[in-house]
């Protein structure tokens, strides 16, 4: 019985690690060091490049801009849980674009339902 519980816990831990993605465009040094295959020097190179030239657009952009990271290395790091690309950037852009319009839309919806709405200027 104990053996089954131990094996189940080990499997859950392995699957949990596989699904814990680290976004290269928002991660700090500690998060990058948590990815198998990224050491102190590589984490520093990623952070320095991101700080100097902005977020990475896609895996190919990461491979081109960070010395020593070719296509295969980036693919391997993605398999280890490194996320690169427009998925994170699109979500941030979508929130930034939708943010200012949201209060007006909420006020309009409330007015259509006959309720009161308060508009706040920023």
TrEMBL record:
<dbReference type="InterPro" id="IPR051675">
    <property type="entry name" value="Endo/Exo/Phosphatase_dom_1"/>
</dbReference>
<dbReference type="Pfam" id="PF12836">
    <property type="entry name" value="HHH_3"/>
</dbReference>
<keyword id="KW-0732">Signal</keyword>
<dbReference type="InterPro" id="IPR010994">
    <property type="entry name" value="RuvA_2-like"/>
</dbReference>
<feature type="signal peptide">
    <location>
        <begin position="1"/>
        <end position="20"/>
    </location>
</feature>
<protein>
    <submittedName>
        <fullName>Helix-hairpin-helix domain-containing protein</fullName>
    </submittedName>
</protein>
């Amino acid at each position: 019985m104990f053996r089954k519980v131990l094996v189940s816990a080990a499997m859950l831990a392995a699957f949990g690690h596989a699904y814990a993605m680290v976004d290269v465009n928002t991660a700090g040094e500690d998060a990058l060091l948590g990815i198998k295959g990224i050491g102190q020097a590589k984490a520093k190179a990623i952070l320095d490049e991101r700080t100097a030239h902005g977020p990475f657009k896609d895996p190919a952009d990461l491979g081109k801009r960070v010395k020593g990271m070719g296509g295969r290395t980036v693919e391997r790091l993605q398999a280890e849980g490194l996320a690169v690309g427009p998925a994170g950037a699109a979500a941030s852009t979508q929130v930034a674009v939708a943010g200012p319009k949201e209060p007006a839309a909420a006020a309009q919806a409330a007015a259509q339902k006959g309720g009161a709405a308060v508009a706040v200027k920023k």
